[in-house]
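Worked Example 4.2. Consider the chain below.
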Amino acid sequence: MQASAMQSPLDVTRINIGTAQVDITPEPGRELSGFARRVQPSVGVLDRLFAKAVYLEQGAERLLWIHADLIGIEREFVVAFRQWAARRWGLADRQVMISATHTHAGPATVFLQEAGAYDPEYVAFLRSRVEQVAVAAMEATEPCEVVAVEGLLDLAVDRRKKATPHTDPRVGAVGFRRQDGRYRAVILNYPMHAVALGPNNRMISADIPGRAAAALSRQLPGEPVALITNGACGNLNPPFENVDVAQLEEWGGQVADAVAPLFGSAVPQPAATLRTYSRVIPLPLDALSVEEIEAYAARIVHDPASLAEWGDRFRHAVENWWQRMVEAVRNGQARDTRDAELFAVCIGDVIFLGLNAEVFSRFTDDLRQAAGRKLYVVGYANGDMGYIPTQAAYAEGGYEVDIAHLFYCNFRPRAGGLELLTEQAARLLRELPVW
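Applying the procedure from the previous section yields the following structure tokens:
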């Protein structure tokens, strides 16, 4: 690896950064992931998908962050990529993060029953592309100052329509600015499901995050690589789905506009210290016996709302979940916990906290209050185990609580799991140095 410019290890006002992006758009004809109601396969390309890499280094600390226009990635993909990065560059697991925008108009890179068949051929292609973009980002770095801005956007809505609605209007962004004022990269975070095109759409698209990335890059000097990361959005959607291209463009522009004007007057952080931390927490699951699995499946397969929305695809998902869970229990392979990885990236006084799940938006607010830090949660980071609702949501019920784990074909997280992660994440954040 060669650096185009070097900095003193003692200089904490700048961070060495390398960036790259590569096209990962599949050809039409492959299935799209995310909606059980969608007619498959894809029939065209509305806009291109990209994998983007940001490589940061400061002294001995390094971070390779890959962000892709995908619904998510399997945990095994992350493990294999980290092993490759360790062999090639000596990067530790805590120095490699892979996140996804969660677009529901991309290829099937996760196992989600009846919502796009997992595509191993595309995943192999993706692996080669991710390695390619990582190499390109690490080949040429330059020192940049760091600026951080935060805007507000009341666009996302709480889709559950229950008694405990919550939204998070904060749009946070960190920019990496060259000495001449041009930006090399921007990392933006806003929590909202990337489902604007809806289940009626059969065109490949990055959805709102893709339009936001293009708009933000256009508005900033240097046309930086823009990572539009998703937040704690398990309960948050755009105002409505099945929109046209004009509406998609408008919403993407609103996300970019929430922060783009603020960069003009943003002052560099006096101490842009880089730190990374990772902690794996065993998340308890509602592990069931064979008898409990059969009773649950026999009851839920007749759920009228689910049948009205998904029909036979819902029946197939329940029957497959039933069969696979019973087999796992009888073979002694059923798990009563899953690994939740809390991955903290500290850039100056800003913290991005990656989590391999779809968590509810209250998680971010509760963490901010507990830790007293400027914080943005990055969902769908280093895998995706599915929804982790609030304890209050378990009492209310709904898709995320009662149904979603059937499509993910797992036991659901036990009630109180999100609160456990909040406690553990707050503890981790309180241990981090304040720079």
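The chain is about 30% helix and 25% strand. The first helix runs from residue 75 to 89. Compare this with Example 4.1 before moving on.
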